[in-house]
Amino acid sequence: MAVIPPFFFSFSFFSLSLLSSLTGGAIAPPHGRRWAPSQRPARSSPAATAHLPNCCTVEKTWGREKGRMGFSCTNLEVRIVDIDISNKQIFQVYHGPRNVRYGPTGVDMSEFIVSERGIDRPAERSVPSIKGWLMRGLRVDPQTSDITINVIVSRATEGFYWELMPVQNSRVWRWYVENALQRGWPLTMVPFVHPKDPGVQMNMDDGEGPSAEVNETSVEEVNAREDGGVVALVGIQPGGVADEGETVGAIVDEMEREDSDNERVEEGDSSDDETDINLAEWASEDFFGLVVSEEDSVRWEYKENEVIQGAIYTRAEDMKEAVKHFLVSLRRDFWVAKSNWLQYEVRCVKEKDGCPWRVHAYKGKWKDYWTVSVVTKHTCFLPGVQKYHRNITCAFVASEMYAHVIDNLTYEPRSIMRHIEETYKYTISYAKAWRAKQKIIEMRFGTYEASYDNLPCLLGVIEERNPGSSYAVKKFPSIEHPGKSVLQRVFLALHACKMAFVNCRPVLCIDGTFLTGKYRGQILTAIGVDGNNQVLPLAFAFVESENTDSWYWFLKLVKTKVIGMRPNVYLIHDRHAGILRAIEELQFGSMERGYLGEWKDVQSRWCMHHMGADFFKQFKNKELMNIFKRLCNQNQEKKFNELWKRLDELCHTLKFFPKPKLKL
User: Fold this and answer.
1) Minimal CB count within 10 Å: which of 207, 358, 456, 532?
2) Which residues of 286-304 are buried (b: 16+ CB within 10 A; e: fewer)?
3) Are the CB atoms for 349 and 288 separated by under 8 Å?
4) Cβ atoms within 10 Å of 149's Cβ, excluding its own
5) pLDDT tens digits, residue range 174-230?
6) Quick one: where's region Disordered (predicted)?
7) Given this model, what pLDDT does residue 287 score?
C-alpha cells in the first residue's frame, strides 16, 4: 500500500467523518508530489489512541505548548502527531569557502563545513535578527560586509530536487520554517558573506524575536529528549509515493492554499503577517569554532581558473570572466554563440571542423545566480605555440590586473605585460597594457566625461552640506551636441576658509598652474596667511587657460564671495600679463570691455620668489641673490633703503662689468 505524506491542520479539522473516510483507501498529494520522511527525532509520547476499522490506528500527542496537528498513515496505522514549531529546533548551518555543486538530487553541500545549532521558536524570528545572529557567530564585520541567507527547499513534483532559495524577508523565513516542519525538509541555513553596498547599515541589535539562548546542541541530546514536541512520522520511507489520487477535498484545498502561499512568498508577498511577534533581543554569544575566513568576500569562489558543470556564480559578469580565464588557461580560442539575460554559451572556434566543445550557463527561474549546466571536452588538436591570443582583450587584462593596479597606481604598463606573459604565456602589446590600466582607473574612479558631468552636482552638494560656501559655474552651449552644454569654468570657496580669513593678514597670494589629464586646463588659486605663517586656501577655480578674462572672472568672484567689504587687500603675484591687466581693470575699469572698477582699493605686489628667479636668470650671481633676499625680508625702512641703494649700485656696476668679484 502507498505511503501517505504528512499534512498539517488544526485539531478541529480532524472530525470523526474525516477519520472514517481514511479507512477506505490511501490519500495522494496533489500533482503526484512525493514527500520525504521527517528528519526530526521523536520527542513526545502518545497520549491517546483510538482504534479504527481495517487495522488503522490513530495516535494523538501534545507538546508543552500549543502547536500544529498532523497525521500520517501506513498500511497498519494512522498516527496523529503534534508538530511543535514553538520550541527549540536544530538547524544545520553550512559555511566556509567551498563550492556549491548540483548532482542528480539537486544542490550538493557536501564540501561545506556544517555545524548544528539550536534556535528557540524559529518561526517567530525575523530576518534581521537571524542575520545579526549569524554575523556575530561568523564574526563578520557589519560595517564592511553583509550576509545573504539561503535555505534548501524542494519544488519537484516527482521525487526530490533540492534547491537553494534566498530568504529575502521575514515572511519568507516563517513560510520556510513552517513548510520544512510540515513537509519533512531538513532545517538548514546557508549564509553567504559578500561586500556591503555603500550606504547600507546593518542593525545588529534589532530587538526582535523572543529571548533566546543560542547554543550548540548535539544530535544525541536531541534524541535523548522525550519531553514533547516533534514526533517522527511512522512508516514513511525515503522516496515513497502516494498513488491513489486526491480523495479528501479538504486536504486538497489545504495543499492548494499552501502552494498559493508558496508562490506569493517567493514573489515577496505572503498571507502571513510581517509584524514580529516578540521583541526580546537575541543572545550575543558567538558560534564556537564557526569562523569564516576574511577572504570570503563573495558567496563562493573558484580560484584555479576552472569552470565545471554545476558551478554557480552570483553575477553574469563573474561567470563570463571565469569562462574567459578558464579558456585562456587552456590555450584555446572561443566565440560567443549566445548571450542574453537568461543564457550564456561559448563554443570552440574550430566548431566547423567538428569540435563539440561548448560551455553553457543559465539563470533559472526564481534564481538570483547563474549555473553552469554544460561543459564538454575539446576534440580538436591543441594549436602550436602562439605569441598572441585573440581572447586576451583589454577588458580581460583589466580584470586580471585590477587588484595590482589599484594597490599601486604607479604600476607600469610594462609590468602588466610581464605579468600576463608569466601567467598565461602570451604576449600583449604596450598599447593594450596601457589601455587596460586606463580602464582599471576608470572602473575604480570613473571616466573623465562622467567627472565633468557630475562636477556641478558635486558643487551643489558641497554648498548644501557646508552652508555659507560659494561656487559658480560658467558654461556655453555645445555646437556638436545641441541641447548640451560645455563646462568652461568652475569656482569654489568654502565657508570655513572664508570665515578664517577675517583673522588673517590682508594679503592674498594668487597663482595658476596647468592641469594634467585628458582635457588639460588651468587651476587658479588664492591663498592667505594667518598669524602663525600657516597657509590658508581661500578659493580656487578651474579655467580653460591663464588669460586676462579668466583672471578677471576669478578675482571678481574672490572680491564678492570672499573679501567682501574688507579694505586695502594686497595681491601678491608673479607679474603674469593676464594678472596685471585683470588687476588694472578691477581698479579702473575698461571702456573697451565694458568693465566697471569693482575693486578700487586693491593693491598689487610682486612675489619675491618669482622676482628672485628672474633676477638670478638676469645676473647669475649668488652674492647678488643673497642681498636680494635680505632686501625682501627687511621690515625696517632705513635698512631697506640702504640695501636697495647698495644693490642698485652693484647691479649698475655688473651691467658694464659682468660677474665681478664682489665683497659683501
Assistant:
1) 532
2) ebeebebeeebeebbebee
3) no
4) 19
5) 889 888 888 778 889 999 888 876 544 444 333 333 333 333 333 333 333 333 333
6) 30-49, 255-274
7) 42
More confident residue, 224 or 313: 313
Give the per-residue SS3 of 143-210. Answer: CCEEEEEEEEEECCCCCCCEEEEECCCHHHHHHHHHHHHHHCCCCEEEEEEEECCCCCCCCCCCCCCC
Banded model confidence at residue 507, pLDDT cuts 50, 70, 90: very high
Neighbouring C-beta atoms of residue 377, cutoff 10 Å: 7
Residue at grid coordinates 553574469: 316
The pLDDT value recorded for residue 557 is 94
**Residue 654, C-alpha cell as written in the block:** 655688473
Name every residue whose Cβ is closer than 8 Å to that of residue 304 and which is 6 or more positions away in sequence. Answer: none
Tracing cell 638676469 back to the chain, one arrives at: 618
Q: Which residues of 80-102 are buried (b: 16+ CB within 10 A; e: fewer)?
A: bbbbbbbbbbbbbbbbbbebbbb
Distance CA 506, CA 565 (A): 12
Instruction: Indicate the pLDDT class of residue 32, thresholds 50, 70 and 90.
Output: very low
Task: Give me the residue spans of the domains in the chain.
Answer: 1-301, 312-375, 394-445, 449-606, 609-656
Of the candidates 551, 596, 594, which has an alpha carbon nearest to the alpha carbon of residue 573? 551
Distance in angstroms (rounded) separating the CA atoms of residues 290 and 136: 10
pLDDT at 59: 35
User: Do the Cβ atoms of 348 and 333 come closer than 8 Å?
Assistant: yes
**Centroid of chain to Cα 292:** 19
What one-letter code names the amino acid at 623? E
Over residues 320-331, the pLDDT tens digits come to: 888 888 878 777
Contacts 24+ apart (CB under 8 A), 300-304: 300/97, 300/98, 300/99, 300/100, 300/192, 301/97, 302/99
- For residue 22, the tally of other CB atoms under 10 A from its CB is 20
Which percentage of the chain shows pLDDT scores above 90? 19
What is the rounded CA–CA span in Å between residue 164 and residue 367?
8
Greatest extent of the chain over all pairs of C-alpha atoms, in Å: 136
Smallest CA-to-CA distance from 616 within 602, 632, 630, 628 is with 628
Residue type, 526: A
- The residue among 297, 295, 268 whose CA lies nearest residue 127 is 268
> Any idea which of 24-28, 159-163, 282-286, 589-593 has the lowest mean pLDDT?
24-28
Residue with cell 533581543: 281
Query: If you ran DSSP here, which 8-state letter would residue 75 be given?
Result: S
Which three three-digit cell numbers place residue 336? 560567443
Q: Could you give phi then psi for residue 146, rounded to 5 degrees?
A: -135, 165
Whether the pLDDT of residue 24 is over 70: the answer is no
How does DSSP classify residue 236? P
